[in-house]
Design a protein that fits this description.
The protein has 261 residues and is α/β, with parallel strands linked by helices. 46% of the residues lie in helices and 16% in strands. The protein has a 6-stranded mixed β-sheet, with helices on both faces. Helix 1 links the parallel strand 2 and strand 3. The chain is globular, with a radius of gyration of 18 Å.
Length: 261
């Protein structure tokens, strides 16, 4: 089986690498399943102290693989969505701290990964955007996780505007915790060293206290979001529009705004 998400363990740190560089680290259903399996493996590894999620290539994650989504049966899309939701919930509920090491742009579903992580380190030139509306999608599944990090009004403006935020603005909106001017390696090593000085039991309890009472509510929100997503992707015209966009064509609703003179 092709490794779309790679797992490695070194010095009590589990590394999960998004490895579909040719697709700008977009996630198809198989990648989502592998991501879920890697997160579970790290959470259950008794030797693991910290988990780092990072990516291969210049993009961190660009969300859903539109080519795959336009060709696959909706049941395959549902399977991928459920696996992705499971991975995000596992990150939130894991006793281990998860650190996102972001050295490339994060788009659409990729924001769900960084929103679920406990600490997000990003390079200053990174940009972040919720672009689902352009292709006729809605960020159903990742919204519960984004709401843990930002106010609903900020989430709405991000999704409605579809504009790219620079890392500084993402920091002020709560999506990024530390910004690096160039390579994130030094900042990541510094953060791992701090976590290594902490009691694992205390870190687990801090995650629970910080989101006190949130776990059950989060699961309910994700279940509801899955239901909405599954209903949405059943639209007969959606796969055709996704295919058009993936092939460089404009969706039927796409128009150019011409300002008045």
């Amino acid at each position: 089986m092709e490794q779309l998400v790679r797992y490695e363990s070194r010095a009590n740190v589990a590394g999960i690498e998004l490895a579909t560089r040719a697709l700008d680290n977009a996630l198809n259903h198989e990648a989502a399943i592998q991501l879920d399996a890697c997160v579970l493996r790290a959470s259950e590894d008794s030797d693991c102290r910290v988990v780092v999620i990072y990516s291969e290539g210049p993009k961190f994650c660009t969300g859903m693989d539109l080519v795959a989504a336009s060709h696959n049966d909706p049941s395959v899309a549902r399977e991928g969505a459920r696996a992705f939701a499971s991975a995000l919930l596992r990150i939130c509920e894991s006793p281990k701290p998860f650190v996102a090491n972001v050295e490339g742009n994060v788009v659409a579903g990729g924001l769900g990964i960084i929103a679920a992580c406990d600490i997000v380190i990003a390079r200053r030139d990174v940009q972040i955007a919720l672009t689902e509306a352009i292709v006729g999608m809605v960020p159903f599944l990742i919204s519960p996780f984004l709401r843990r990090r930002m106010r609903p009004s900020l989430l709405a403006s991000l999704a409605l505007s579809t504009r790219y935020l620079k890392a500084d603005e993402a920091f002020h909106r709560g999506l990024v915790d530390e910004i690096c001017d160039s390579d994130t390696r030094t900042a990541l090593d510094r953060q791992l060293d701090r976590l290594y000085h902490c009691s694992p039991r205390a870190l687990d309890r801090i995650k629970r206290v910080a989101h006190l009472g949130d776990s059950a509510a989060l699961r309910m929100q994700v279940d509801a979001a899955l239901g909405e997503l599954e209903e949405w992707i059943e639209q007969p015209s959606l796969r055709e529009e996704l295919g058009n966009f993936a092939n460089g064509l404009s969706p039927s609703w796409f128009r150019r705004y011409r300002p008045r003179m």
